[in-house]
Amino acid sequence: MENSTVMPVPVAYNDMGAEASLRDHVGWVWYQKNEFIPDRDKDLRIFLTFESAQYYAVVYFNSKLIGEHEGGHLPFSFEVTEHVKFGADNRVTVAVNNTLSYSTIPEAEFQYKARKEMAFGGIRTVYLEKKPKIHIDDIRVVSDHVGAIFWKIVLDGCSSGCAAKVRVLDADGNEVMKAAGLTGSGQVKNPKMWWPRGMGYANLYTFRVEISSPDGQIVDQYDEEFGFRSVTYDNHQMYINNKPFYCIGFGMHEDSEIHGRGYDGAVMTKDLNLFEWVGANCYRTSHYPYAQERIRESDRRGIAVILETPAVGLKVFTDHNLKLHKQIVTEMIMRDKNHPSVIMWSLSNEPHTERKESRNYFKTLVDLAHDLDQTRPVTIVYGPSHWEDDQTADLIDVVCLNRYWGWYDDMGYLETVNQSVVFDYTMWYEKFKKAMIMTEYGADSIVGLNQQPAVDFSEQYQNELIRETHKALDHLRKAKILTGEMIWNFADFMTAPAALRAVGNHKGIFTRTRQAKQAAYTLRDRYLKLLPQV
Fold first, then answer.
1. CB crowding 157-167: b at 16 or more within 10 Å, else e
2. In this structure, is the dihedral angle defined by the CA atoms of residues 294, 126, 48 and 99, taken in order, positive or negative?
3. What share of the chain is helix, strand, coil (3-state, %, to 5)?
4. H/E element holding 371?
5. Other C-beta atoms within 10 Å of 5: how many?
6. What is the pLDDT of residue 405?
7. Glycosyl hydrolases family 2 sugar binding domain spans which residues (predicted)?
8. Of 267, 154, 145, the residue nearest 194 (C-alpha)
9. How far apart are CA 168 and CA 178, in angstroms?
10. What's the confidence (pLDDT) of residue 1?
11. Catalytic-role residue among 308, 350, 440, 459
12. What does pLDDT average to over the chain?
């Protein structure tokens, strides 16, 4: 390969060099690696799995085309058994293209002088899975807060005659239920429920599956973590285990120095430790599904998650885009359906739902999400549409709304923030009668820029805007309109150059290197006071 270099995986490649041509690259890149597969694996089936590739991937194994995948941030896999050279090196090659257009999700208008988002490209973790000829392909575990459990196990390589034994183990490894069958239901007595932070402990159980072939030989076993918890809602409130839940947290990006949008275990750990420091109990995976490692850790820490597709700012509602969007919704729900931390599915961020053609488009997606998962509410995060013209909010379960009074609207006029937020949210509620979450508000601040009285981009302005917004949020909470509040953003993140983007977006209450701004202490004071109430 020409111009080749060593590239770590997982990572977004953009910040791996010193040249603007790599940082700003849009188009094809090629990855290649040799992997030794020993002779002892000859009786196994070999699968090549990608946790994600951004955005379009063409995969080769030993120079044979084995498959293609469109859509970033979600896993895909191809069986390569028939192409494997056992006892030898095997070459894995993948071509990845990060170009976006009006026929991709997320969509984009590609113009040299009008790039709104940083065009991060790259791949998450890639690995070979070695499975028996008969193996577990999927496990679905549905449980509630009183100990009821339903399961469905899908096998690959066995059309009939295989048997399944299932056991439920508590956190200490004690067996609390056992049963048999590829599908079934049961009851665990006095379960320890999974709770978000501030409401109790994030108790997890293990669902252990053991598969036997028709001749009685044990051929596969798998452990799946889950929790006993329920998510319900009415037109005022969301509930976890029948207790009122108020989401306090963040919109954020899976973004850091050097790694870009690539997964970094150290950064993830730092982020979630800061969540606990500030008193947050919830975040939205804006604006794409995050790495599975972060979702698993959220399970363990009791941090609730609103999981979102990569559909940002949709303007085009074609049959082609709908087909792709359905694929993405299906992949997202199938990946994360068993995680107790996931409390809601978000179909899109800031789509143009004031357009009439958006209604049938999103009705199809809402129906699909409800068909795939009857245990969680479905939302759309609204931005450009308004209560007067929105075509879709009656279709969803909880209304999520992004508003930037005092920043993109009435910048510099902090005295308008309280009244504007209260009026806007009240009108949405009066029209649609749905519980609401403020999923974005905030202002940019350049760390160390201090001005008194406050001016735009100073730490003081960000801090004062947040305080004014909190006055409105308190009013809306008392009116039983809000079931959550999430500031934008957890930490500063990189964007493409723009007039309002001084080396990225600076709406974070932490810097990109995770150092606290003034606003972090204001938010911590509020969240720690709210946390015992939720």
1. bbeeebebebe
2. positive
3. 25, 35, 45
4. helix 358-372
5. 9
6. 97
7. 13-103
8. 145
9. 6
10. 65
11. 350
12. 94
CB 506 within 8 A of CB 446: yes
Rounded Cα–Cα distance for residues 249 and 486 (Å): 5
pTM: 0.94
194 strand-pairing partners: 202
Residue written as token pair 């004690």: 174
C-beta atoms surrounding 201 within 10 Å: 12
Structure tokens at 48: 């090549």
Could you tell me the end-to-end alpha-carbon distance of the chain, in angstroms, rounded to an integer? Answer: 56
181's torsion region: left (phi>0), alpha (psi -120 to 50) or beta? left
467 touches 522 (CB < 8 A): yes
Residue 66 has pLDDT above 80, yes or no: yes
Element (H, E) at 151: strand 148-156
Q: How confident is the model at residue 21 (pLDDT cuts 50, 70, 90)?
A: confident
Helix (H, G, I), strand (E, B) or coil at 150: strand
* One-character DSSP codes across 448-483: T---SS--TBSHHHHHHHHHHHHHHHHHHHHTT-EE
Dihedral-angle region of residue 473 (phi above 0 means left; psi in -120 to 50 means alpha; beta otherwise): alpha
- Domain annotation for the chain: domains and CATH numbers: 11-131 (2.60.120.260), 135-226 (2.60.40.10), 232-533 (3.20.20.80)
Task: Quote the CA–CA distance of 160 and 152 in Å, as a whole number.
Answer: 15
Give the ranges where 7-148 is alpha helix by DSSP (H): 20-23
Q: Which residues are CB-contacts of 275 (< 8 A; sequence separation ≥ 6)?
A: 249, 250, 283, 301, 303
What pairs with residue 399 in β-bridges? 380, 436
